[in-house]
Amino acid sequence: MGRVNKPVVIILGAFLLRYRKIYPQISQIAQIKNFLKITSVKSVKICVICGLVFLLLLGFFLLTNEEEEKERVVDAPPPQIEVAAFRLVETREGKKEWVIEAEKASQFEEKTELSRFKTEFYLGSETKSLTLSGDSGVISRGNIEAFKDVRAKALSGMEVSTPYLRWDSDSKKITTPDSAVIVDEGLIIKGKNLSLDPEKEKVEMEKVRIEIE
Does this model's pTM top 0.70? Predict the structure, then answer.
């Protein structure tokens, strides 16, 4: 049996002893790396799945919205009559209430839509008390709604501008929930929830601010 050099035996023994101490640490590092790899793969898969679900939901929403828009277009009935240079006089008990003139009118079953119109209110008097105009409007059961660049001017010179106004035939008042600006005798009055009585020339507003020209 050959002799084994003692220094070699000592070196091998020291190496084995050292390896036994280091091996658990190496094993733990390897496990951590494997865990991170698995976790990373899982995270990527989860992100991909979430992205696909989001795209499917977005596509479904857009498709549903498009179908609803198509249904609205299909369901909207065409006007029964369309008239250029439209003019209408409203009377009550034989007396003239108001006169409307519009560039164009579309008559539907329960309403008339107007394009670029002007209304002169007489309210039973021989002289007009108020003029109302707007880019578009709707007449329904004697009530008038005005939209876009709406202006109302009283006989006294007071002028109201607002995005929307509504004339109520029962109360004989003009109202708007939107912001409005009144110009009268050098004063600029700004506010909301305007209520105007043309016969009495009485104005009510909320959140009022007054400026002097």
Answer: no
Question: How many structural domains comprise the chain?
Answer: 2
Are 65 and 93 contained in the same domain? no
- pLDDT of 71 > 50? The answer is no
Q: What are the tens digits of pLDDT across the range 152-184? A: 998 888 899 999 999 998 898 999 999 999 998
* Distance, CA of 81 to CA of 106 (rounded, Å): 6
The domain in which residue 18 lies consists of 1-76
Q: Are residues 169 and 189 in the same domain?
A: yes
What whole-number percentage of the chain has pLDDT above 90? 38
